[in-house]
Every structure is written in C-alpha cells, then in structure tokens.
Amino acid sequence: MEQYQHLNAIILRSRDYKEADQLLTVYTREQGKLTVQVRGVKKQNSKLRGGILLFSQAELVVTAGKAFPIVIGASTITSFASLRSDFARMSYAGYAAELLDQVISEGHADEELYLFMLQTLQLLEFIDPWVAVRYLELKVLERQGYVLNVKYCQKCGAKLSGDTHRGVYGGLLCKRCAYEDPNGLTLTQEGRTFLDALSYIPLHRFGWLYVSREGRESVSKYMDLQMQQVLNYPLKTRDFLRQMNM
Ligand SMILES: [Zn+2]
C-alpha cells in the first residue's frame, strides 16, 4: 500500500472496536469492499466523526495499519440528507447496505457496483424506497451470475403472458409447464411487468413506477426466493422490513 490512499467510499456498517475506535465496513470505488479502522472516533473531539456518517458517500484518506487500514481523514461527499430524516427510507438504506455487505466479498474492485449503490441511495432519497431496493437486488443478482428472466418460460421457452406464473429458482414457468412446480410461487403479471421495467426504464423515471399492494407482495416474495440463491443467511434488515410491512 502507498503511504496514503484516497478512497471514495460508501459507509455500509460501523461497529465499536477497542476502547474508542470503530471498524467501518465500506464499499469503495477503488478497492471494492473493505474494513477500515477509525481511531479515537468515540472521543468528543474526534475530527473524523462528522465524515463517516452511516450510508453516506465520503472521501477517506487511509494508511496501512496492523490489522486494518487506518482512516486518517474523512470528509462527506454526499450525506443523502433527505434519507436521514425519514425512518422508512433509512430502514431501506440499512437493507441495501446489509445486502451489499453480505453478498459481496472483500477486495474486489467493481466500479459499476459502486455506482449502482450510489444510485440506489440517491433513489432512496426521493422515490418509493420499495422500488429503489428492488433495483439494487437485481444488480446484485446480476453480479452473482443470476440474470432475471421474466419474459420467457424457463422450461419450454414460450413467451410468458397472462396473470400468474409459477416461479422456481432462476426462472418462471408458463401455465402449461406450471405442473412441474405445483407448490411454486405465483408472480402476478403486474409484478412481472414491474421487474421487467426495472431493466429498461431510465433511472429518472423510476419515480413513475406504480405497483399495487398485491403486486408488491408478489414481487417481494418472488425476490426473496431469488435472493436466497446469493445469501448465506437471512438478512436482519429484510426481516425487519417484512415485520413492518414495508
Ligand atoms: Zn413453458
């Protein structure tokens, strides 16, 4: 490592470490996911505290440390202020951060994924947060090699149409093939159309997307099933959102 490094980082998680320190899990543009140590941050006069807000975008200056890189400078680039004042939006941001933290392993730079996370936080400030996190889920799945196919039957290749289809791991079945998976989940046509739209609608139009309560339930259940493919254990923040009916 060079003596000092400047990193563009999104703060995903913080936890106490030693007496007055914190460990941060950050997603950086330059190095992917990293754990860094912030010394003395719990002391009243710490200058670093203001620059490492949870779920903010920050510029970190780090230097090599014994166990972890040490943060010696931190300044906020974007605090996503509208997100901060809203409990529901913060809860969704927590889910986005935990998702990235669990699925992505340390030390692989992925600038695109960094941008997807930034976009998700920007969306979370203003649009329906439920829509924003579905976008990140699709991007994370893609990164892990699961490109969602909501257009064609997984078994026979027929174009999917009509109201409902049985979902199985990795794909959907048309009505004729649905007997293959009699206990499979139903994804409503509305839900399918919504998931498809996320792949081609420009981000600035995401605010226009409307999904009914029934459509949301269907999509949430279907995406839970998809996410199981890449998660090692259930996400606490996802369970929380479910309990809160969010
Ligand atoms: Zn079929």
Structure description:
With 246 residues, the chain is of the alpha+beta class. The protein has two domains: 5-81, OB fold (Dihydrolipoamide Acetyltransferase, E2P) (Beta Barrel), CATH 2.40.50; 87-243, de novo design (two linked rop proteins), CATH 1.20.1440. The chain has helices spanning 81-84, 87-103, 111-126, 129-143, 189-198, 213-227, 236-243, and strands at 5-17, 21-28, 32-38, 57-63, 70-78, 164-168, 171-173, 185-188. The chain has a five-stranded antiparallel β-sheet with strand order 3-2-1-4-5. A hairpin with a 3-residue loop joins strand 1 and strand 2. The mean pLDDT is 92. It binds zinc ion.
Which features would summarize this protein structure in a list?
246 residues; alpha+beta; de novo design (two linked rop proteins); three-stranded antiparallel beta sheet; 7 helices; 8 strands; 35% helix; 23% strand; elongated; binds zinc ion
Order of helices and strands: EEEEEHHHHEEEHHH
Structural class based on helices, strands and sheet pairing? alpha+beta
Could you tell me which ligands this complex binds, including any ions or cofactors? zinc ion
**Number of domains in the coordinates?**
2
Helical amount among residues, as a percent range?
25-40%
Number of helices: 7
Termini, distance in Å? 43 Å
The CATH H-level superfamily of the largest domain is: Recombination protein O, C-terminal domain
Query: What is the CATH-assigned architecture of the largest domain?
Result: Up-down Bundle
Morphology? elongated
| Major sheet attributes | 5 strands, antiparallel
Strand content is 15-25%
| Count of beta strands | 8
State the strand order across the main sheet: 3-2-1-4-5
Low-confidence blocks of residues:
none
> What integer value in Å does the Rg equal?
20 Å
Average pLDDT: 92
CATH class of the largest domain: Mainly Alpha
CATH topology assignment of the largest domain: de novo design (two linked rop proteins)
